[in-house]
Every structure is written in structure tokens, then in C-alpha cells.
Amino acid sequence: MAEEKKPKKLNPKRTAVQEQDPALRRRNFEEVSLGYSAEEAVLEASRCLGCRNKPCVAGCPVSVPIPEFIAAMVSGDFAEAYRIIRSANVLPAVCGRVCPQENQCEGACTLGKKHEPVAIGRLERFCADWRMKNGARAVPEPAAPTGMKVAVVGSGPSGITCAYDLARLGHKVTMLEALHEPGGVLFYGIPEFRLPKKIVTAEIDTLRQMGVQIMTNAVAGKIITLEEIMGRFDACFIGVGAGLPRFMGIPGEDLNGVYSANEFLTRTNLMRGYLFPEYDTPIRTGKRVAVIGGGNVAMDSARTAMRLGADEVTLVYRRSEAELPARAEEVHHGKEEGLRFEMCTLPTKIIGEDGWVKAIECVRMELCEMDQSGRRRPNPMAGSEFEIPVDTVIMAIGTGANPLLTGTATGLVLNRGYIQADPETGKTSIPGVYAGGDIVTGAATVISAMGAGRKAARAIHEYLSSMKR
Amino acid sequence: MHKILEKKLLRPPDVFFYKVSAPQVAAKAKAGQFVIIRLHEKGERIPLSLAGIDPAGGTISLIVMAVGKTTGEMAALKEGDEIRDVCGPLGNPTHTENAGRVILAGGGFGIAPLYPIGKAFREAGSRVVSVMGARSKSLLIYEKEMRDISDKVLITTDDGSAGMKGIITDALKGELESCGADTVMAVGPAPMMKAVCEATRPFGVKTIVSLNAIMIDGTGMCGGCRVRIGDKTKFACIDGPDFDGHLVDWDGLINRQKMYKAEEKESFEAWKKRHNLS
Lengths: 469, 278
Ligand SMILES: Cc1cc2nc3c(=O)[nH]c(=O)nc-3n(C[C@H](O)[C@H](O)[C@H](O)COP(=O)(O)OP(=O)(O)OC[C@H]3O[C@@H](n4cnc5c(N)ncnc54)[C@H](O)[C@@H]3O)c2cc1C
Ligand SMILES: Cc1cc2nc3c(=O)[nH]c(=O)nc-3n(C[C@H](O)[C@H](O)[C@H](O)COP(=O)(O)OP(=O)(O)OC[C@H]3O[C@@H](n4cnc5c(N)ncnc54)[C@H](O)[C@@H]3O)c2cc1C
Ligand code: SF4
Ligand code: SF4
Ligand code: FES
Description:
heterodimer; A: 469 residues; alpha/beta; 5-stranded parallel sheet; 18 helices; B: 278 residues; 7-stranded mixed sheet; 5-stranded antiparallel sheet; 9 helices; globular; binds flavin-adenine dinucleotide; binds iron/sulfur cluster; binds FE2/S2 (inorganic) cluster
């Protein structure tokens, strides 16, 4: 059909993607977005202007060559498109799904100034999924063995990326993971309906095929100290994340029915509580659920609660909707699925009865709407107290640094619990020890953790090369 | 995969002893720590205290009371079977420096961790008095082992079939009145530890307890094991499991242990039905 390149008329709207009907998907754990078909993908790819200055690439934390991979898609060469993406990003199937594209690549897209930006994330996902379905398994050939051994602690996106790059360079990588399943937040945190676990498992399998040894149930700091790691390995990367859940410190937080988002999501994802009693780990969602917070973690918890059968799920956030830090697409999906939003609202107390949650007491916040740019704190409005009757409360107000490894590592300089590391190399205060991801930056994004893993791998490679001489 | 090298019925019908191959855990573990195990792909993660640590042999010992689905499944395992996941050692070791005169108070499966703890106290030069309670003589476990590591052993049974008739706190109070102690360490079901703390409080004796909050990861990641200690919230898995018993919010802990009662029952009943057990 497409034989000549006429100056095409640009569609101001991005190509729609098939999604599960909200009325159905709010009760199941299957993926929300079904992804583009090949025709839809090419149609969307052809919206790209191929800008010389590539603002989209500048917006991507790992500089995926966006116009180049999109051009390959337009010509129908999905394998080449995948290859181009993969040169910069080892987890495209993940990033295409979970990157906050509106703040990154798509936020910078030229088309976005007047129209809707190119759906870069969906295209990236398409290529990755296409590859998984059609391509031979993409296991890169590692370089000749260097004889150097590196330990990677933590198997989240930073650790995966670092291990991948180091293995490719011929180093012998051993990965230590505290849980019984590798993947970090990608496995235990982000729910199945947003990121199917088989994608994460496939990426981990690739690492294994590249010769990375993965030791699960291995809590560094307990089974091996950092000192011992450095005795047995030539270098170490620490990517242990920022997994320590915070609570608000309001009365009633120890009642039955109060969860941290981490516990709620771990029971559901890692332990497959949504399949109880086929799987042994129980999870309890009452009929009315309040989720405190406004980020991705809050949104994931709220939508998970809905899928576990809650009648009413309310998101309680102290600022206004415009400031919700969650990905725009998730907010949109959550609304379609019937989440209630109580914005500019702060919980002050959890009310219990016989040891169980019965209601949550809140106040309205003022100055909230004007809070867009500055960090002016919203203030509680006197006399605005009200109660929301609930039987489950999920706290998704952020996490802190976990002390298990860092607390036992002498000589490792910390900053309020987080590891102090050079942002360009991941270098820490101990020679040969590098760190990256949430344990350095505090809770951030998948792609920034991956970027840190990649930079550290490069620095570790240089360090090992200099050592050899 | 971790092979069960030895299994025996310690106290009929439901308390079992296991020796499990776990060389890396054994190399690092100290008295007072625990492991989290998962039996199979669909299994729950459950914490179990270390009842014995053998670094040379590369094994750990566990004493498990079959109370529900997972421990019930574990009771059905045989020597040579394997446990899919063993994660540990977790939690902080018990401080077992020379503490002078130490009384160990154990109830139920609490005797399990007290054995290595008592041994460590003794090796550090403490004098160890063990107070063990059970409903009747046949329900006592690990008596011989506890005698091996104790300078004195006091036994109480509800029916008087062994030792003195009464409950553990009676013997404990008597011992504190007659000889005193520098430290009391209690491990067992929460109501028993609570009672011990109430008994020791008037004597002003430092009382350490090992808390058994419901856990998942055991790494500080989920917050499910949180307990109130004085005016602070602590995570039993990484801040504990040992705490000053006089500061513990016992009613809060006991309430949280009941969070999944209904689901646990459902799961256990369904499992028993599938296996034609009553
Ligand atoms: C529910 C949820 C939803 C999110 N949604 C998004 C999203 O949509 N988009 C986005 O970009 N970001 C999202 N994020 C943030 C993103 O997932 C994180 O920023 C990212 O995973 C951090 O990667 P990491 O490699 O630093 O660590 P993590 O992914 O946290 O992995 C760390 C790993 O280290 C292990 N570990 C910890 N301590 C030890 C130890 N002592 N020894 C051995 N192993 C240890 C942990 O068990 C874990 O597996 C979300 C986060 C959560 C919790
Ligand atoms: C630090 C620690 C050390 C322990 N050491 C031992 C030991 O040495 N020997 C022993 O027999 N038992 C021990 N326990 C208790 C043991 O973990 C529970 O008996 C077991 O989890 C019950 O699981 P179930 O499926 O068989 O029974 P269920 O019917 O599921 O539960 C029975 C009761 O056990 C408790 N429980 C359930 N799930 C968990 C969980 N994930 N974590 C903690 N408690 C839970 C609850 O209070 C519940 O009401 C310990 C617990 C902790 C926290
Ligand atoms: S990795 Fe993320 S930010 Fe970069 S192009 Fe892909 S979706 Fe966009
Ligand atoms: S900015 Fe947008 S239109 Fe321009 S090259 Fe990048 S994706 Fe294409
Ligand atoms: S068991 Fe999850 S934080 Fe303690």
C-alpha cells in the first residue's frame, strides 16, 4: 500500500491502544494495556518527525536513540528497532511499561508542543514484546573471561543492569538477593496488571544464560558482610533499594487492617496472595479501603485492592490532583476503574474497634491548590475534620533506606542512611565498592536505577582493568 | 534446596525436631537468630528459631510445633525430603555476654531457641537456671538438653505429673524471691511471655523476650512485624527479635497475631481435607 512518501497529514492524536474494559479489569490481575498491533505500531511510529536535535533523547535518562529506532519501525524492521533500543536499555519491555514517559522522553517530544507527543513508551514496549514472541532469544555473547569476580547485591533494575553489563564484558558476576525471587521492586512491588512477572523472569533468565550466578535467600549483612564480600570478590555493586516502609506516626497504625504498601503489594505479588488459598499466603482486603499517598505505590495499592474485591477504594492525598506524583496513565486508568479521590486531605487518626480498623479521621488542607511549583506545605484547616468509614488502610507515604547491609559495613559513608556515591560512577568511600539506584538517590524510578547500574558497571570495568595491570 | 537430614517426633503428637542442611546459614548463625523457610513454590514464608547451630557439620536444627497449614505440611515431611528456601540467619543475636545469674523461662516451642541461648550464656560464664513449663509430664520437650546447659532446672506442670504443680510464673517468682537473678530471658507464646514480664516487674529484673510477630520477608521491607516498644514502633525482624519485655505492648502484639485467624483456618481445613486428615 505505502509506495511513496507523500507529505502525510499528521494526526494530532496518538494512536489509541487496546485496553481491557475497565469494568472487567478492575476485578482481574491481567495486564491493562494489550499493546499495539504491528499495524498500529507502524501507524504511531510514522507520526515521528525525526527531529535533528532529538529533544526526546535528551529527555530519556539512558539516551535511547529514539528517532532511529522509530525510523526502523516505520520501515517494518522491528528486529533492528529492538536492537537499537537494546543498545541503550537492557529492559525495554519493562521501561516501555513503567517509565514516567510524560516527564521524560515523551515530555520532551517536539510534537507535544502543539499535539500529543509520539507514544514512545508504547512503541518501545511493542518492539520488546515483538522480540520476545518472534525473535531468537537475545542472549548476548559475553567477552572472553577476564578472571575477575564481581558481587552484585540486590536484583532490582540497578543490579540487573550492572550485572548484565559486567557479564557482557567477561567478568564473573554473582548476584545476591535477599528474597526467594529476583527482580526487586519489579517483582514484589509493581503489580502483575502493570508489569507481568513473566517479563521480569525472562530478563532474569537472560542473566543466568550469560553466566551470572544468582543466589536467592542471601541477605547481605547477615549471611556475608561487605568486608567478606570484598575478601572474596574483586569489586562489588550495591543496589539494595530503599525498601524500609514509613508510617505516619498517627494513632491507630498498629490496628489489624493497617498495611504498609510494601506488605500489601508483597503479599499480593511476591507471595501471590490474590490466588489464596491455592497459594498459602493470605491477604485481607475489606470492603472499604483507604490508601494514603499519591505516588505510583499508592496507585498500585489502590488498584490492587480493587482487584482483590473491595467495593470502594479511596485515595487520600494531602495535595491536589495536579500534584499527584504517579504516572499520568495510572491515574487515568485508576479513575476508569472507579477509584475515589479525596485530594487535599490529611489523615489524623485511625479509629479502631475490637482491634480492627473501623474508620479513618481526616482534615482538609488549605493552600493546597496553589502549591504547584513551590514546596509550600499544605496546612490543615481548623474544624474540617471528617471520617471515612473503612476496614483497611494502606500507607503508601514513602520509604527509607534499609540498614541491613549498610549498618554492618564499616567505612561505608552514608548520608541519612543512604549510601554516598559519585553520581557519575557510583564510587563509594570504599575502594572497589560501587552503589546505585534507590539506595543512593532515595526512591526514584526504574530507569534512573538502571542508568546508575550502567554507569557503575563502566566504572567497575575501568577499576578492574587498572587493577590487572 | 535444603535436605532434611534428620527428623524425629519430639513430643507426640505435634512437636518435631529437624536437622537441616544449610552450611552458609550455620556458618554465620548465632544464638537467638531465626530463619525464614518456604516449603515449596506455593508456600508461605514462616519464621522459625534456630534450636541448634552446627557450623562444622553445616546444619541447623529446628523444633516446630504443627499448628496450621505450613507447620502441618512440615510435619508430613520425611528425612531426605527438601525444603525449598531457607533464608537466614535473620534478626539480631541475643546478647549473651556474662550476665551473672540468668533465668531462662521457656514455654511451648520457646524451649527451642533457649537451648543455644543458654549454651552461649554458659560459655560466656553466666550461671544458668532454666524454668520449663508444660501442661503435663508427657508434654515436656528438650528436658535432657536443657539440663546439659543449666546449673539448675525447675519444672512445672499443671497437673503435677513432673516437677512442681503449677505454672511457670509460680516457679519463677519462687526462684526470684529465694535466689534472685540478674537477667530473665523468656521465649514462648506471647501470653506466656507477657505473664513472665508481669511476674518479674515487681523484682525490677531485666527481662528479655523474643517476639514472634507475623513476618513475611524478615528484612525490614514490609513492616508487617511491627510492634510497639515503649513509645516507639519497631520491626521485630530487624530491630529484634529480642526486646525489653517490660516495654512491649503485649495486647497490641497478641491482637496482630490474630489478624489472619479466619484465613489460616480456611487454608488448614482445606489442606487437611485434601489429605484426608481430620
Ligand atoms: C509499588 C511501586 C511501584 C513503582 N512504580 C514505578 C513506575 O511505574 N515507574 C518507575 O519508573 N518506577 C516505579 N517505582 C520505583 C522503582 O521501582 C524503583 O525506583 C526501582 O525499582 C529501584 O531499583 P533498585 O535497583 O535501586 O532497587 P529495588 O528494585 O528496590 O531492588 C533492590 C533489591 O535488593 C534486595 N535487597 C535489599 N537488601 C538486601 C541485602 N541486604 N542483601 C541482598 N539483597 C538485598 C531487595 O530484596 C530487592 O530485591 C515503583 C516502586 C514501587 C515500590
Ligand atoms: C521470630 C519467630 C520465631 C519462631 N520460631 C518458631 C519455632 O522455633 N518453632 C515453631 O514451631 N514456631 C515458631 N514460630 C512461629 C511460627 O512461625 C508459626 O507457628 C507458623 O508461622 C505457623 O504457620 P502455619 O501455616 O503452620 O499456621 P497458621 O495457621 O498459618 O498460623 C498459626 C499462628 O501462627 C502465627 N503465624 C502465622 N503466620 C505467621 C508468619 N508468617 N510469621 C509468624 N507467625 C505466623 C499466627 O499467630 C497464627 O495465628 C516463630 C515465629 C517467629 C516470629
Ligand atoms: S527508557 Fe523510558 S524514558 Fe527512555 S525512551 Fe524508553 S520509555 Fe522513554
Ligand atoms: S522529539 Fe518526538 S517527533 Fe521528534 S524525533 Fe523525538 S519522538 Fe520523534
Ligand atoms: S517481616 Fe517484613 S519487616 Fe519484618
